[in-house]
Amino acid sequence: MRVAFCFDLDGTLTEEEILPQIAKHVDLYEEIELLTKITMRGLITFSKSFKLRVRLLSTIPIPTVKHTVNSILVNKPLQEFVQKNKADCFIVTGNLDVWVDEFIGREYGCAYFSSRAKVEGEKLIDIEKILDKQEAIHALRSTYDIIIAVGDGMNDCTMLEQADIGIAYGGVHEPVSTLINIADYVCYDGQALAVLLESLKQKHGREN
Description:
Number of strands: 7
Order of helices and strands: EHHHHHHEHEEHEHEHEH
CATH superfamily of the domain at 3-15 and 74-205: HAD superfamily/HAD-like
CATH topology of the domain at 3-15 and 74-205: Rossmann fold
Number of helices: 11
Shape: globular
Radius of gyration: 16 Å
């Protein structure tokens, strides 16, 4: 059986949230961090929050954002797992393609699903599409027999609901209670999660 692994990016494959780090360039770190936290808890929809956060950060040139994103700390055990299994690993992030594509390519080397931006030169003009994470699961259904999804926030709930196996991960943040309730597993350590993923791969990969 073919097994796919879908990972949230911020706070799952990375050791820090990306947008608050970008916000330091315009002295809005605390404001963006607060918006990020309340979004993760489901107090505001991801779509509304993301539009607001992008609007606040849109004045920053894209190369500057890429430079910041490229310095984000990664979760080493999960990075190793993804790189080892990159043909069957997919990053599913609400972040904008133009901000994270270079980082994902260099650090993980796997395919990804993301929100899409409209740009002119080095300037972000608008958001073309905000990703609903369940779309990634639907897109992979015809290719994979089993889909395993890993995330930590409210916007990961639809992804875990549509996956065959859901894992709530709390390496950086406590996973939201809604996510924990629908997850098959809850994990708080990157190395332990990598071991679990390898175990699930071996188990389901052998099934006929």
